[in-house]
Design goal:
about 180 residues, mainly alpha, Rna Polymerase Sigma Factor, Chain: A, Arc Repressor Mutant, subunit A, elongated, RNA polymerase subunit sigma-24
Length: about 180
């Protein structure tokens, strides 16, 4: 328990330093959350360039608005919320149909969760189910934190996860059935 307290203190300390203008501390926070941010962006956006734009805009906006973070321990939740807003803005601006193209989904970061059938299945979910699934299963966020980030009730988060599991089960079974032929 002492180690967890120390790590939380260290993280708060890093956020405090970043808020005071320490660029190295800010970069350390971004580096610490880099893979999480990438996974969330990839869960919302398909196009590699859009993912890169969302990540870049998130870093810029979070640096500019860092003083608006009220509680240092919620940095991760706060920056993911900024990222989701950036992704939604990109989707609103583009208003285009995006088809899943394996050649278009080049990795920016190494992701140990890479499983193409699962990735395709998750990408085929509606945006609201996809975001909720990525935050819960890949980012290990609690229902409460997801509800706060998405600004929806916890019950809605639970029902979206249930719907996503049902759809994913259907999609994966179809893939397995097709593979067995």
């Amino acid at each position: 328990m002492e180690l967890i307290s120390f790590l939380n203190y260290r993280k708060k300390s890093t956020v405090s330093k970043a808020k005071k203008g320490d660029k190295e501390a800010f970069l350390a926070l971004i580096d610490e959350n880099r893979l999480n941010l990438y996974r969330v962006a990839r869960g919302i956006l398909i196009d590699k360039e859009d993912i890169e734009d969302a990540l870049q805009n998130t870093i810029i906006h979070s640096f500019q608005k860092l003083n608006s973070l009220k509680q240092d321990e919620y940095f991760r939740t706060w920056i993911i919320r900024i990222l989701i807003n950036e992704c939604n803005e990109i989707l609103r601006k583009s208003k285009r149909v995006t088809y899943l193209d394996e050649n278009n989904n080049t990795e920016i970061c190494s992701d140990s969760y890479e499983n193409m059938d699962l990735t395709r299945a998750i990408n085929s979910l509606s945006e609201e189910l996809r975001i909720t699934t990525v935050l819960f299963y890949f980012e290990d966020m609690s229902l409460k934190d997801i509800a706060k980030i998405l600004k929806i009730p916890e019950g809605t988060v639970r029902s979206r996860l249930t719907r996503a599991r049902v759809k994913l089960r259907e999609i994966i079974s179809e893939v397995e059935y097709d593979a067995s032929k």
